[in-house]
Amino acid sequence: MTASNNYRRVGIMGGTFDPIHFGHLVTAEAARWEFALEKVVFVPSGRPPHKKDYRVSDPEHRYQMTVLATASNPYFEVSRSEIDREGYSYTVDTVHEFRRFYGPEVQLFFITGADAILEILTWKDVDRLLKECHFIAATRPGFQLNRLGESRPMLPVEGRHRIHLIEVPALAISSTDIRWRVQNKKPIKYLLPEAVEDYIHRQGLYRPRDCGVYEKS
Ligand SMILES: Nc1ncnc2c1ncn2[C@@H]1O[C@H](COP(=O)(O)OP(=O)(O)OP(=O)(O)O)[C@@H](O)[C@H]1O
Ligand SMILES: O=C(O)c1ccc[n+]([C@@H]2O[C@H](COP(=O)([O-])O)[C@@H](O)[C@H]2O)c1
Question: Residues in domain Cytidyltransferase-like (predicted)?
Answer without folding.
Answer: 12-179
